[in-house]
């Protein structure tokens, strides 16, 4: 999928780029697979803001994605590739031989009329789903389960893919897009290929309005606040942070401080960290 730029007839168009959407073949969503996406604006059940900078944005309907691929040994035909406002990846509408329709994450290279299947053993083709035990070592995979039967949780963003590096006993070594090497049960399922919409990371929004359309509110730097509002605030003119290192608005270390718990119960599944040499 390509990137389109504009003649700089306005200040915002000077820096704006958009996707050409060549992969997308279907404009309107399947109504039976839509549901309400309620906005929460970063608030919890008490109405207090727990996640800052959320709110507003264009209205969306949520597309129900089949992350489990439970229809085993039943072939499905791709009807169309669609845009999904709730994720960076595109989605594919598929129809099984019994007439049921479902959405799946669209891999790179999947087009209308292609056949996909979820089975114990299947062809190594984009979009096919099977247990990791049946996938050859070295294959690029996406949409990976972390727990058998729970549905895919890993490698679902646009352009992402992981690589199956080895299989030993009950576990497989999978290299994640971050570079982390992780143990995943060979009974967990994964899809073959790479998530489509690979140019998503190259898009430049170009103006503040496009972030507001996405539901992202403005972010204010702590250094321009008052001391009562932020540890970086106060001082005459531009003042340094005034602490040993940068801090969050609540006085905790920020920018590089590792927040993952030590002795986490899943540490034993991480063979190599993403930031290790």
Write up this protein.
- The chain is mostly beta strands and 277 residues long.
- A 7-stranded antiparallel beta sheet has the order 9-16-10-13-14-15-17, with no helix packed on it.
- The two termini are 34 Å apart.
- The chain has a single domain (3-201), classed as OB fold (Dihydrolipoamide Acetyltransferase, E2P) (Beta Barrel), CATH 2.40.50.
- The chain has helices at 11-15, 208-213, and strands at residues 3-5, 17-19, 34-36, 61-63, 76-82, 91-96, 101-105, 115-116, 129-131, 140-142, 144-145, 152-154, 162-168, 171-175, 181-185, 189-192, 270-272.
- Strand 5 (76-82) and strand 6 form a beta hairpin.
- It is built from 2 helices and 17 strands.
Helical fraction equals: under 10%
The share of residues in extended strands comes to 15-25%
What is the H-and-E element order? EHEEEEEEEEEEEEEEEHE
Number of strands: 17
Main-sheet strand order equals 9-16-10-13-14-15-17
Principal-axes geometry comes out as globular
Ends apart, CA distance between termini: 34 Å
Looking at the structure, the CATH topology is: OB fold (Dihydrolipoamide Acetyltransferase, E2P)
CATH superfamily: Nucleic acid-binding proteins
Biggest β-sheet description: 7 strands, antiparallel
- The parts where pLDDT drops under 50 for at least 5 residues are none
């Amino acid at each position: 999928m390509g990137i389109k730029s504009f003649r700089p007839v306005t200040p915002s168009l000077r820096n704006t780029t958009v996707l050409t959407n060549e992969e997308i073949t279907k404009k309107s969503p399947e109504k039976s697979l839509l549901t309400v996406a309620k906005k929460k604006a970063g608030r919890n059940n008490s109405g207090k803001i727990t996640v800052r900078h959320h709110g507003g944005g264009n209205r969306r309907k949520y597309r129900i994605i089949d992350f489990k691929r439970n229809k085993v040994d039943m072939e499905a035909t791709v009807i169309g590739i669609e845009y999904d406002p709730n994720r960076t990846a595109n989605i594919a509408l598929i129809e099984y031989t019994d007439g049921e329709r479902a959405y799946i994450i669209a891999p790179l290279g999947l087009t209308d009329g292609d056949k996909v299947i979820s089975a114990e053993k299947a062809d190594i083709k984009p979009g096919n789903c099977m247990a990791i035990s049946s996938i050859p070592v070295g294959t690029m995979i996406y949409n990976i389960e972390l727990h058998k039967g729970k549905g895919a949780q890993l490698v679902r963003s646009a352009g992402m893919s992981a690589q199956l590096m080895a299989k030993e006993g009950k576990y497989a070594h999978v290299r994640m897009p971050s570079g982390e090497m992780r143990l995943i049960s060979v009974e967990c399922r994964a899809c073959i290929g790479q998530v489509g919409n690979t140019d998503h990371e190259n898009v430049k929004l170009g103006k503040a309005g496009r972030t507001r359309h996405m539901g992202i509110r403005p972010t204010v730097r702590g250094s321009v606040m008052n001391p009562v509002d932020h540890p970086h605030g106060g001082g005459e003119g531009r003042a340094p942070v005034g602490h040993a290192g940068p801090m969050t608005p609540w006085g905790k270390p920020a920018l590089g401080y590792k927040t993952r718990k030590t002795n986490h119960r899943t540490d034993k599944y991480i063979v190599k960290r993403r930031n290790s040499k």
